[in-house]
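User: These chains co-purify. Model them together.
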Amino acid sequence: MTDQIREQLSALLDGELPKDEMGLLVRRLEKDATLRRTFGTYALIGETLRAPGGRIARTDFAARVGAAIDAAEGIAPAAQAAVAGSDIRPQAGQGAPASGATRGRRVAFWQRPMVRTALAASAAVVAVVLFRPGTTPVVAELEPQPASAVALVNSSPAPAQSQRLASYMVAHSQYSTPLVRRNVLTSLLAADPGITRVSYEMGDAP
Amino acid sequence: MQPMPNFPPPDESMKSREPGDDDGGLSAGTEQSDLELVRRAQRNERGAFDLLVLKYQHKVVKLVARLLRDPTEAEDVAQEAFVKAYRALGSFRGDSAFYTWLYRIAVNTARNTIASRQRRPLDYEAELSESEQNNVAARLKHDDTPEASALSEEIRVTVNEAIEQLPEDLRTAIVLREVEGLSYEEIAEAMDCPVGTVRSRIFRAREAIDRALQPLLD
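Assistant: Joint model of the two components:
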């Protein structure tokens, strides 16, 4: 970092940097942590001279703000992707900044379970409709499979299919509400007594 | 929403600004510079917003710490205020100075924190009761932890010592700028030298103080 750039920073802090010099400086700052630190210290000097005393921001404060903004920005696209069904699991690296109870973190934890719950409830309703006895055959495709694996489902599900459905419910039970879980399992039990054994095993599970 | 008691809106203090007022040196040039940074940030230049955070971080943390009973929470609340500001940046049209706008966001964020602590339903438009207003006044006198006070005092002493050791021309330039809030042109006139020389002197003064501060900040 040259003296010339630092002098530009100093002038920028005072509102005395020509506009045409600002663009390059901003771009440099995005890539240069030392430059950001210097600017922060210049600001601290002025603050100390004008209003000594009182609490000051820690040296990593601006970095934490940046991380919180990144976290908040990253949430919306992730939530949209989850709604689209691309991935209902939490995104890796979406955590909030290292410290501080940020709004971004609160939104993240508030949004994800809601999205997942809604998806799980929708999947459960679809599953009940698909496997309800006495309906016309429909194509069941609970998860991506080779074309040969897609099967016609009769009005009375085969034991293997019932067990698969029950297993699916167990695997996704954490994403649904107790009421939805109970309703779906009750429907399954009523539809096929053969599923009872699996359900009890599920109930015993921790 | 009514203005916070005991805390005049910054607009009014800025309109009647006198040299030495605690307004962050918000000269017309500074306001224009901030506005340019905001415009760049609105065009997704994150570095521009980073500069605004770095510029006002101490001011906002200090402000929030004065309003909260627990000063250790000040940085979290200040951080939240900056995030809110970033997310609302699209609505900033430059009708007021950027810091005025940021100040309001910070005060409202602190008020909401105080209100939520008192187990009230979170209402972003809630007004503070009379007793809460009195509490705010009391908090102005108890805004620091011993550690924060010690560091702040060390920084104050170091900055003052470093300024005392500066050559006369550098010391005069930095004091006229930071304490008296003069523009480079006004300082040039007062010191009878070119504006470029003022810019260089202020920079060199900051560099010297920066070097003295580094052991404390690292």
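The radius of gyration of chain B is 19 Å.
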